Write a sequence for this structure.
């Protein structure tokens, strides 16, 4: 079936080791016929993107490593007028530097922004899956080798099906059928801090109920008065907060698209 990469977002610590290892392997190193040397600046064949969500102080951040997806239906291949982009038997898609005319058609065609233009060499360039290493005995690309948390897994796609099951791909609507899969991408969250404005103390153990389309999520406020509803889908939610001795508090039509930090929420004492 070909090679594939699994990215477990929950394991990624944002150390950027994979990005640095890619630079170390390719910047200034000519691996013809696989690829010409990557320039020292301006290109990231492996790029770690940070994704902060929420507002202070309710903020969470996750990191996603991105590369060429070595797609089964690679639009870059179809766009190349020189037939300079080929797919190997192991599924890796390569730009042949001796055939590339530097027309940039592949750059425009790639939906992932994974292809770069090297003005000095007048050629398009991208991740090769470290094919030069694989062909000389290595079992994995440098980025995978450098990951200290095992957030990156590389291997034969058919042997990785247990990891691929339930994983996501980027931009599935393009129909490109990428071979890079992402696990455990965090969903949205709704959070806040509940407190008693009279006693000036947080409310511990308050019951929080979130409702959307017939589905219900429940949690309680912790020792800091905080509550978190994590890994929510994008949608519209109603929230009800109840605590002993206080009037219920309600928030309607909360939209989780950008995550929701309700901040400090005062409760009114029951009369």
């Amino acid at each position: 079936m070909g090679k594939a990469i699994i990215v477990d977002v929950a394991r990624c610590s944002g150390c950027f080791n994979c990005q640095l290892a890619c630079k170390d392997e390719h910047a200034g190193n000519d691996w013809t016929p696989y690829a010409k040397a990557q320039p020292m600046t301006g290109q990231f064949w492996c790029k770690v993107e940070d994704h902060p969500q929420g507002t202070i102080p309710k903020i969470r951040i996750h990191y996603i490593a991105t590369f060429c997806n070595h797609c089964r239906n690679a639009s870059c291949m179809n766009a190349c007028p020189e037939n300079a982009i080929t797919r190997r038997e192991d599924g890796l898609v390569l730009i042949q530097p001796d055939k590339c005319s530097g027309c940039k058609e592949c750059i425009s065609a790639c939906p992932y922004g994974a292809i770069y233009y090297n003005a000095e060499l007048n050629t398009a360039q991208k991740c090769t899956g470290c094919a030069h290493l694989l062909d000389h005995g290595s079992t994995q690309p440098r980025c995978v080798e450098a990951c200290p948390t095992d957030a990156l897994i590389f291997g034969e796609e058919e042997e990785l099906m247990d990891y691929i099951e339930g994983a996501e791909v980027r931009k599935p609507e393009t129909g490109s059928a990428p071979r890079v899969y992402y696990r455990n991408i965090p969903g949205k969250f709704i959070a806040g801090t509940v407190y008693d404005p009279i006693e000036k103390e947080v409310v511990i153990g308050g019951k929080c109920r979130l409702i959307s389309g017939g589905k219900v999520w429940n949690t309680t406020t912790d020792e800091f008065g905080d509550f978190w509803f994590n890994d929510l889908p994008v949608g519209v939610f109603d929230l009800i907060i109840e605590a002993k001795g206080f009037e219920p508090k309600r928030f309607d039509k909360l939209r989780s698209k950008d995550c929701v930090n309700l901040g400090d929420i005062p409760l009114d004492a029951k009369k």
